[in-house]
Every structure is written in structure tokens, then in C-alpha cells.
Amino acid sequence: MTDLPETKSASPNLFRKFVNGTEIDTRLLGMFGALALIWLGFHFYGVIFKGFGAMLTPRNLWNLSVQTSSIGIMATGMVLVIVTRNIDLSVGALVGVTGMTMGILQVDIFPQFLGLGHPLMWVITAICGILLGTTIGMFHGWLIAYRGIPAFIVTLGGLLVWRGTAFLANNGKTISPLDDTFKLLGGGPYGTIGATGSWIVGVIACIVIIYLLVNGRRKRITHGFPTRPMWGELTVAGLSCAMVVGSVLLVNSYPWPKGIVKQYAAANNIEIPPEGIFISHGFAIPVLILVTVGILMTILVNRTRFGRNVFAIGGNPEAAELAGINVKWMTLKIFALMGALAGLAGVVASARLNSATNALGLLDELYVIAAAVIGGTSLAGGVGTIYGAILGALVMQSLQSGMVLIGFDTSIQQIVVGSVLVFAVYLDNLYRKNAK
After folding, report:
1. What is the DSSP letter of 105?
2. Cα separation of 383 and 360, whole Å?
3. By Cβ atoms counted within 10 A, which residue in 171, 245, 396, 417 is the most buried?
4. At what angle are helices 327-353 and 305-315 packed, to 10 degrees?
5. Tens digits of per-residue pLDDT, 3-15?
């Protein structure tokens, strides 16, 4: 029998050709699709039932990026924890205890030694908060790795212990206001880099994207690996740069409130014309912190021995130990890193609220774990990406923000978030079965 000629139906469809040519992760495309559906759904719900869609406005999307920052920062660390088949239920409590500690330091303790409004107070406070989170994370890691207590039990106990410690530290009182410079780390009109700074960041980001693509293609050719077709390279570069430019245009289209503009003009002896002054927010500082953390964590995971060891442990802990990897020491370091990121998230969260409260970080562990899982991190271990976790955090925060905008009760919000988490794990199971 002779082979029949291939028909058009046997050729790859356009979507498959696009995915193969650009090498874009299909999970990433699915995440963007889900995010678009969430934004459009909540926006048009507002248009239809309330006469105004608030979801896709520059103001809401800018606020959404700031609200995502602390969850996204912790989600990057939770990827490593879950990849190694562990879990950390204490991250929300760590945000609370580090935030309360930093509040006490800069309001009650440091002014006695450094003086009120000392220019380095915010730096010392942030370092103390991150070090405290690191120390607690190391303690959790030691109990898990060297004392053989399951991570679920250790971190569940940590959730209760550190939440109670935060309450006892100031007898349940709220500490406010915080240092003026410190609170800039949480965003707000003054905690931004403005229009010019945002364009500078955007141009640098585009240059880096193009450099990485060109350098990656050159390395593939040098080592004899297959390369993307040129249209695939141009598509990836174009889409990536378009997203960066679109983000810059978005944050620059959100102006300062009129009251803040009047205060700024009065402080700088600026006369406000009749038509007013348009001052752009630009990128918020916590968003830039999240982006920086995402880049550094991606390099750590993909370009270092530490990252390779993390995924080796997640794939098969016994084989990793036989291969010479010190699994216990790695586990301790992973939880220490998770604690440091929780401390950094405590900096951002307390600075954004300009206060240290007992509710700081409450239920954050739910959103952080959900962000990592929705972003493609497998609870079975061995699989996960940093960018996926950050995108998952944006999806979770978009759900919560959209439900707030349309007036859903808190109980309904919790039901939806819990259902989404269960559904994400179900999809992960299906994906792994199909992959096999």
C-alpha cells in the first residue's frame, strides 16, 4: 500500500502553529484569557446593571496593581515551597507580626535613639522586618527539615502563634501614622515615579526584552539547538514590548486627585491654571518592588544551582538526596527565603495602609497559595513558574476587586475564592494526566 498524501486537515491549525512558533506556554495563554474574561465580565456587569463599568478604568487597574504587590511578592516564594512538596500556612501571620514589629520600632523605639523623622529610619525599619521574617522562616524550616515535623503542622502552628504574638505585641492596638518616607513604599500619589520615570522604566524593559531574545537566539545557534522561526521571535518581542508600553500608558493616564494637586502646588509655589494640572501617577513603588522580586526570583530559579536543586527535590526527594543534594539544608533555606519575602510583603502592606493593624495579612495565606496553584505550580511538586505565580496573584486580586466593585458580600467573595482554588487544582490534575 502506498502512503496517502497529507491533507490540509492533518496540518497543524493556526493556534498550534502559533504556540509552536513562539514557544509560549499554553498555561500562560490560558491565564491571560481567564484574566481578560474576569476584567471584561465585571466591567460589563457594571455597565449593564449599574450604568457604569468601573473595572477597566485607569484608576481601578492602577489600584489593582498596587493591591496585587504584597500577594505577588509572597507567591514567588510559595512556588519554591510547593515545588518541594511542602506548604506554608503562616505567611499571612508573618506579614502581621513583621508589620506590627516595624510599626512599634518606628513609632515607639527608634525615635528615642535616632530622633523623629530620621532619614534612615525607613531603611532600618524595613531591614528589621525582613530579618525578622527570615529568622522565623529559618525556625520553621529547621523544625520541618531537622526535626521531621510536617510542614502543614509547623506552619499551621506558626499561623496561630505569630498572629497571637502580633496581637500581644501592642495589646491589639493599631499603630499609626508611620514614617513619612516609609509609607511611600506602599504607593499612593507620592509613592510613585511619575510619567517620565515610568517611560524610562518602559524603555529599559523593552531594550532588555530585545537583548534577551537576541542573546538567547545566538546561544541556541552556537550550541546547535533549534531556534524559533523569525516570525516567532518578532511576535514574542512585539507582544512583550506592546504589553510594557500599554502598561506605561495605563499608569500615566491615571492623574493625581485634585486635592493632592492643590497641596503639591501650594507646597511648591505653583499657580494652578483654570483648566487644572494633570500629574500622572506612573508606576507605584510597590509594583516596581514586585517586578524586581519577580526578576530576581526567576534568575534564582532558572540560572542557579539552588534553583535546579529545588526542582530536583520536587521531582524526587529520595533521588535528589542520593545525588548529593542536602535536602534538609535546602528545605531550611527555602523556608528562610519564604520568611524574608513575607517580611518584605509586610513592609509593603503596612506602608500602603500607613499603619500596623492586627488585621494585617489576614487570610493572605489563602490568596498566596491560590495564586501559586492557579499560576501553574503543581501540588504534586516539581512544576512551577515565578511569572505564573505573579499572574495568578493578579487573577485572584482581580476576582476580589471585581466582586467588591459590584457589591458582593464578603461571604460570597470567600465562597468564590475557595471554589476557584479547588477548580484550579482540578485543572492541574487534568493537565498532568494529559501530559502523561
Report:
1. I
2. 30
3. 396
4. 110
5. 444 444 444 588 8
